[in-house]
Amino acid sequence: MPGRSAPRRRATGRRPAGPDAGRRRPGLWWELRGRSVAGQVLLLQVLVAVLLIAAALLVVTTQARNDTEQDAQRRSRAAAAAYANAPGVAEALRSDDPTLRLQPSVEAAHWGSGVDFIAVMATDGTRYADTDADLVGERTSGVERAAKGEAFSEIFRGDPTDAARAVVPVTEPDGMVIGLVAAGVEIETVGESVDGQLPVIFISAAAALALAVGSAALVSRRLSRQTRGIGPSEMTRMYEHHDAVLHAVREGVLIIGHDGRLALANDEARRLLELPPDADGRHVTELGLDPSTAELLSSHRAVTDEVHLAGDRLVAVNTRPTAPHGGPPGSVATLRDTTELSALSGTAQVARDRLKILYDAGVRIGTTLDVVRTAEELADVTVPRFADFVTVELLEPVPLGGEPVGPPTEMRRTALSGVRDDHPFQPVGDLIPFVAPGTPMAAALAGGHAVLEADLTVADAWRAQDPVGAGHAVAYGIHSLVTVPLQARGVVLGMTNFWRGAGSEPFGEDDLTFAEELAARAAVAIDNARRFTREHAMAETLQRSLLPHVLPHQSALDVAYRYLPAQARVGGDWFDVIPLPGARVALVVGDVVGHGLHAAATMGRLRTAVHNFSTLDLPPDELLAYLDELVSRIDQDEPGGEGITGATCLYAIYDPVSGRCDVSRAGHLAPAVVRPDGTVDFPELPLAPPLGLGSMPFESTELHLPEGSRLVLYTDGLVEDRDRDIDAGIALLRTTLADPADRTPEETCEAVFARMLPDHRRDDIALLVARTRLLDRSRIAEWDVPLDPAAVAGVRAACTRRLADWGLEDIAFTTELVLSELLTNAIRYGSAPIHVRLLYERTLICEVSDGSSTSPHLRRAAITDEGGRGLFLVAQLAQRWGTRYTPTGKVVWTEQALGGGPLPDLGLLPGLDADLDADLGP
Hints:
The protein is built from 24 helices and 31 strands. By secondary structure, the chain is of the alpha+beta class.
């Protein structure tokens, strides 16, 4: 291949056969093997550095050439485009003699353009003019793409020279190609530019090599000090001894550094202490050891045969400091399994079991913030290791998050676990009364501590509670009971009962303390779950009350939505659909960072603020700017730092007349747009920081949505999860929205939730799907009005005719009055251009726009005033009226009911007849 050297043959590395085959031969390799480890590392690092720098030289040189060629293509395209669009080029191409008119300008343009040649050609490639005049009339190949209207750049190889060239079409206003302009830089020039960079590249490589060799020498020197200059054979022997200690010695060995972190543990120590795989380097208190064992190992005390509990084993521990014997500061511990000692086996086994149960209770009870599940975990963790059956009863308000009040006279059975399913106990869900005095349960509730009933067969007080049920239990084999109240913060939440049956030893006095400890841990977890349930219910109720229950009536969009709160804690996601004047609709979706009541209340404040700001009919970017300023003020006034900075919002306004959608966002995810043909894209929107930061202005993006497009707004809880990053979530959303393409908004919501909902929702999810409609053009009437009061009558008459065509004669007179007033005001007080638009939608919308930004306002005219009552007339005749500002002025609009209705008594306002006569005119 040109430009590349032929591959070299690599040595096989085999030794020559013969009598000297097994002997070491002098040379670099054997000299290297005889050196220390530090010396070998030095030579290998230098070798690697040389190879890497050589490879880098090759890559940098190749990249420099590619960059130069690309730069040449860009300069060529810029020059060709500039000349193609230059004044007079198109006219010269249409002339009788293009060469005569173009050749001088081509030669003049060549100087200072940064290219080697410029050529003007016919569409078939024939040169009209060229920097090299000898090439005029010659035909250029490879320009067919430009002749079809496509500008391109390439590396051209052929006559008259290899070059980085660009070809740009010269087109008529109607798009027809009438000629081509080519510009380029010769490959030889490109090569010269690259050659000019080679000295710098080689100097940089030499400097890098020197730096690498220097750093390698420093590393080697450091390694030499660390390894004390030992050779490979000595190091191999040391590692062989190290492996023997790690794997072959049947006594546990631990080395703990001076900072209490585990430096080394052999296999036996890992087995005895059940160390995790990643134990090396972690602090001994983080290894899940018994607290007394962890304290001993981290204290560096010297002990001999001190017995400690390690899981199901009793381990004799010996510790000694390492520093006096030449090692680094720390200690070494040896472990020996002494579980088989018969003198300690019985007592130790019971202690181990109790400790194991308590440990498991701390891990397994309270894994969720669900009251019922926490009660079930209490029952499951103690069966069968402590009791054969466990029942848990809670007071009625507790599972619902309520605070228990009054004496605990009855409780509802919440959990039941046992070694057999055919038990004699009342099922879960039954009410259990506690009214009989003298029972173990009553004594436990009264005293606040565990009560033992060692032999139920002779416990008459226990039978008094439920004689029939007690008889069934005794007949079944239940013979022993420990009952413990579940108390937290001094409040009784419920009761747990531990039962033993046939084949098990009766409970003893030593079981009471353990049962109380177990119940105390469970009570704290149940109380936490209860309080969370209360807060969650309050926050969810508040949030749902603040979210829209019914979407408003409007004709611009078919809308469907879904909202799901987080399973753990309610967040601050919200959405809204807000009808705007001019048949437009605003779509809003937002997310408040955080969870709980504060997030839900904050969401309500922001939603109310968006509703209020939307009444001003502001563009999306201006509305978000006002909202951002409001959030900043709230954050400054909020006590205790409980601000709302971090809220995100996306605000979109859709106009069914033009099909335009203006979108702006503050820290929120971009919406998805599903076109009618099923293609899905996520438009690039300018991203501003979340609300409340106030660091950058907001920007709006204009989207043109064909009728039938679907605009999908959502919060991050839909696409982001602990098992799925946001990019994967958006890719899945894209796939879901694209298949199939003709879903309704309701079907789209169903499909998205069916496919994308995570198993456990850590965040709220809000989804809003809107399918666009366009207002029928036959229901739109528009007129441009000159700045002349005489033009009002003509527009009024045209409006009356159009209302007759629409069958709205009932409201023609009131519309004529409204239009006359608005037009007269625009002509008197506004500026050109003046435009009138009527929209026949759910209501009749009348819009008068002008170039002035002065807004009209309603006022009370005095009896002697000759005018000033027009807007009062408009307010009486229309359902709503208002003003919105545009980039070129303002629009004053009104909405009238289609059914008409009785006219107001306008005679109550003196002077109104004169105003009407003045506005209506002849």
